[in-house]
Amino acid sequence: MTDTPPRDATRTTSATPWYRARWFLPVLLAVLAIIFILENRDLVTIRLLLPVVVMPQWAALTITLIIGLLIGLMLRRRRR
Length: 80
Fold this sequence. Notes:
Elements: H1 18-39, E1 43-47, E2 52-56, H2 57-79
Antiparallel strand pairs: 1-2
Helix pairs in contact: 1-2
């Protein structure tokens, strides 16, 4: 017979806390995206098939980021 205490079935063993493993990369990427957007504030001309739009570059980058996030969310839901 061994002298080890019985294992507690309700206790979870995890080597890495959830906030580091799951959120580190997305938060890092979001911070980098925000810094990139804030550094690019010049006016740019964007051609959207027919109309030509002049807007701050940060706005165009933010819109592109949001569209990319929405596409990613749609694809993620589709796989489930």
